């Protein structure tokens, strides 16, 4: 996101009650966008107890002008904390 020297703004909003995390990464004042591959974000969890959990990851991306851009999201298997 910082390719070409562009500034990237990162914000997050955590809703612990619903178990949802929203992440926004924005190239500010950018009219050309960026192309390529690479990791955009990673989420680290601290386990507070044992058990199984499911994790669903979804995402959207837009190019300059608001046109849709594709994302490849790697599926996450069920998580078990022991």
Short description:
By secondary structure, this protein is mainly beta.
Task: Give me some keywords for this one.
82 residues; mainly beta; two-stranded antiparallel sheet
Question: Can you offer a commentary on this structure?
Answer:
The chain has about 80 residues and is mostly beta strands. It has one domain. The chain contains no helices and six strands. The protein has strands at about 10-15, 20-25, 50-55, 60, 70, 80. The strands form three sheets. A two-stranded antiparallel ribbon has the order 1-2. The termini are far apart.
The largest sheet, given as strand count, sense and whether it forms a barrel, is:
2 strands, antiparallel
Give the tally of structural domains: 1
Distance between the termini: 36 Å
> Within the largest sheet, what's the order of strands?
1-2
In one word, what is the shape? elongated
What is the C-alpha radius of gyration, as a whole number of Å? 16 Å
Catalogue the unreliable spans.
none
Average residue-wise pLDDT: 84
Total strands: the figure is: 6
Secondary-structure element order, N to C: EEEEEE
Number of helices: 0
Structural class: mainly beta
Strand content: 25-35%
Which percent range fits the helix content? under 10%
What's the helix and strand layout?
Blueprint: E1 8-15, E2 20-27, E3 51-53, E4 61-62, E5 68-69, E6 79-81
Antiparallel strand pairs: 1-2, 3-6, 4-5
């Amino acid at each position: 996101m910082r390719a070409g020297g562009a500034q990237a703004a990162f914000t997050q909003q955590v809703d612990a009650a619903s178990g949802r995390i929203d992440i926004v990464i924005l190239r500010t004042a950018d009219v050309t966008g960026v192309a390529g591959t690479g990791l955009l974000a990673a989420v680290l969890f601290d386990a507070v107890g044992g058990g199984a959990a499911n994790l669903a990851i979804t995402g959207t991306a837009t190019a300059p002008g608001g046109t849709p851009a594709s994302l490849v999201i790697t599926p996450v298997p069920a998580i078990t904390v022991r």
